[in-house]
Design a protein that fits this description.
Layout (H helix, E strand, L loop, with lengths): L2 H22 L8 H6 L6 H12 L2 H4 L1 H9 L5 H4 L1 H19 L4 H8 L2 H34 L2 H5 L4 H55 L4 H11 L22 H11 L2 H8 L4 H17 L1 H4 L1 H10 L17 H9 L2 H38 L5 H22 L9 H25 L5 H20 L8 H22 L22 H19 L1
Length: 534
């Protein structure tokens, strides 16, 4: 990496940090728990959309999903395109109910709907899952991506891949902790939006440069046509049974995991709780839906182009001698991106890594401070809650940095992440959905579903091999079973009176007039994409 690349990397990284500080320094992010954890409930649609996208769009996508596309082709776009369906459900069904309740966390809603024990179970599950599964995965994929994009082996002279990965993990972890622990949600949202714009531009440029390299003098369109003619099997929207996303799973585990992620996952939806109004919240969520249907251009297509350029033969090998498909994206970026732009893209890539990392840290701190500490010490002043949140964020950051190096040999990064997420995604989503729709189901049903669901999925994964089913079908079966169990308990031990939301909306609840038409249009586009490539 030459001095121009290094200089542009440092410049753009510093520029985002400076602009974030300038845009948040007068907002008192540390003066109140609402300010620190929910940005003072003042986020508008563009900031919500930008933060949603970049919190989601990180190296587990850039590296992991492009690695999956390298292997399986276009069918892995399900994780992006189907997300638009979930975002429509969030905007039209879940978000109005969340904002009307005035909640700051999903477990808080479950306490109001069921009881405090339900809240405690979900809070502990979220905190452990973020610290042990999600945060380490972000650090691992971030380190893998940076090593390839910046060619850090050459830059540093360090030949040991494990050592270099560990050093990157620590560096990313420390930098991300500064944003989340000392800046609060507003600094997270602003830096997300700034980095998000850069990442979208950089991602599209990489796709463009790769296509023009393949097409030569005939241009990018000719390059795309050449890849489609050479590998038509890579452009099938419906995955085969041997691939990571077989098409029937679109209606079971894939849909359910997407629904949880975009409607119930605290780390993602926390910025929607910070909306200045229902109208702005719906705008932000649906703007994000529009971006998701375009996301395969930077999250799937580059992986297919890398397959055309390199095949499996040119990939580095893991300790067992197997090709590391998740290295494909870094190889592509390092080869096709002009050197003057390499530093810029590395900077926004770091921004994407930090975005997901600091968002999960902020959510972890929010969940513990408002869900556990405030219950233990109800008289705690606002500054005490924030201080506890910073301590918890620091502990979670250190734990994730310790776990991340252990993920070096998990195979497909993105597939592993979705599998592990299913352990807690499915039970929590079942409880939230039944809680909102079936108003006489008692608290014992929710607690039973959480415990039974967690145990059933863990045993199915690690002991009984999903009972011979595809993992995503297995998740669908568990979900249906949990819903039926909760409804049955509701019939046997119904609440004396149906539950009604008691919270007071802290913001204007006038809906956006364009929400329903935009939602319908997104659903039509999703169907059209699948039909066009089927």
């Amino acid at each position: 990496m030459d001095l121009l690349t290094l200089g542009s990397f440092v410049f753009f990284t510093g520029l985002v940090a400076f602009l974030t500080w300038r845009m948040t320094r007068h907002h008192g992010v540390s003066d109140s728990s609402d300010g620190y954890f929910l940005a003072g409930r003042g986020l508008t649609g563009p900031f919500i959309a930008g933060s949603l996208m970049l919190t989601n769009l990180s190296t587990e996508q850039l590296v992991g999903l492009n690695g999956a596309a390298f292997k399986d082709g276009l069918s892995v776009m399900a994780w992006e395109v189907v997300a638009a369906v979930s975002l429509v459900a969030m905007a039209l069904f879940f978000l109005p109910r969340y904002l009307r309740s005035g909640i700051a966390t999903v477990p808080q809603l479950l306490e109001e709907r069921f009881d405090h024990q339900t809240r405690m179970i979900t809070t502990v599950v979220f905190v452990l899952a973020y610290a042990v599964i999600f945060l380490p995965m972000i650090l691992h994929t971030g380190a893998t991506g940076l090593i390839g994009v910046l060619d850090l082996h050459t830059l540093t002279g360090i030949e040991s891949r494990p050592l270099l990965r560990t050093l990157c993990v620590v560096g990313i972890g420390v930098l991300g902790s500064v944003y989340a622990i000392f800046g609060g949600l507003r600094s997270v949202a602003v830096s997300d939006t700034l980095n998000g714009f850069g990442l979208l531009v950089g991602g599209l440029l990489i796709t463009w440069f790769a296509l023009t390299r393949i097409g030569g003098d005939d241009g990018a369109w000719a390059g795309l046509q050449a890849v489609r003619e050479a590998h038509p099997e890579k452009f099938e929207s419906l995955g085969a049974e041997t691939q990571s996303v077989p098409w029937p799973t679109l209606f079971t585990g894939v849909l359910l995991l997407n629904l949880f992620y975009w409607t119930t996952n605290q780390q993602i939806i926390q910025r929607t709780f910070a909306a200045s109004s229902l109208k702005e919240g719906q705008k932000g969520v649906l703007y994000a839906g529009v971006l998701k249907v375009l996301a395969p251009l930077i999250l799937v297509l580059p992986g297919i182009l890398a397959f055309h350029l390199y095949g499996f033969e040119q990939l580095p090998l893991d300790a067992e001698g197997k090709p590391i498909v998740d290295a494909a994206y870094g190889m592509l970026v390092n080869e096709v991106l002009p050197k003057p732009l390499a530093g810029f893209f590395a900077a926004v890539l770091v921004g994407a890594i930090l975005s997901s990392f600091n968002s999960a840290l902020n959510s972890t701190a929010t969940l513990f401070s408002l869900g556990v500490w405030k219950h233990m010490r109800p008289a705690s002043p606002e500054r005490s809650l924030i201080a506890v949140g910073k301590v918890v964020g620091t502990v979670a950051a250190v734990a994730s940095m310790a776990v991340a190096p252990l993920l070096a040999n998990v195979g497909s990064i993105f597939g592993y992440l979705q599998k592990m997420n299913g352990i807690y995604f499915i039970p929590i989503f079942a409880v939230v959905l039944v809680g909102l729709l079936a108003r006489r189901v008692p608290a014992v049903a929710a607690k039973s579903a959480l415990v039974v669901g967690l145990l059933a999925i863990a045993l199915g994964y690690f002991v009984f091999d999903s009972y011979g089913m595809h993992e995503f079908h297995f998740l669908g079966v568990v979900f249906v079973g949990l819903v039926v169990m909760m409804l049955a308990i509701g019939q046997l031990q119904p609440l004396a009176e149906p539950w009604t939301a008691r919270g007071t909306a802290p913001v204007d609840m006038t809906p956006w007039a364009g929400a329903v038409p935009t939602g319908i249009a997104l659903l039509v586009v999703v169907g059209g994409i699948y039909f066009a490539f089927a």
